[in-house]
C-alpha cells in the first residue's frame, strides 16, 4: 500500500532516522524523445495560431492551451528524487506531493536493468515523457507501480506489491534499502 508522504510526520510515532536522498537517473533515450515531442507540441500549436487567422487561430490556441496543461501536469507528476530512511522510501515529484513506500513492505530490493528491453504494458500512467510513472505490467514481474526516469537503471522493490524506481546511483540505493530493511527486522 502506498501512503502519501505528507501523512508521515517526522517523529509522529516513529523513531527519528537519517534520510538519504538519491537523484533520479537521467532520462533514457526514449524518454528524451517523448519529452521533446510533448514539450514541442504546444509550441507548434502556438506557431500555427500565430500564422493562421479566424477560426483556425481559435482552434489552434485551444489546442495549444490543452497541450500546455498536459505538458505541465506530466512534468509535475514525474519523479525528481528518492529518499530512504529507516521507516520508508519516499518518491519525490517535481510539483506534486510525494508518495511513500513503508519499509515494512520492502521484502526485497534488486537492480533490474533488463526492464529497458522487457515488453511492459502501461495500464495507467505516463509512458515516457519526463519519465515513466503509473501502473505497468510485464510477464517477468507481474503488475507493478513505476516511478522511474531511466529503465536501464531500474530497481525492483517489494515482493507482493512491487515498485520500480531508477536512482542514478543504483548500487548505493540498493545497499541503503537493504541496511534499513535489516534494521527493521
UniProtKB/TrEMBL annotation:
Domain Bacterial Pleckstrin homology stretches: 81-178
One Pfam short name: bPH_5
Entry superkingdom: Bacteria
Keyword Transmembrane helix: yes
InterPro entries: Bacterial_PH-related (IPR027783)
Keywords per UniProt: Membrane, Transmembrane, Transmembrane helix
Residues that span the membrane, as ranges: 31-52, 58-78
UniProt-recorded name of the protein: Bacterial Pleckstrin homology domain-containing protein
Lineage of producing organism: Bacteria, Bacteria division TA06
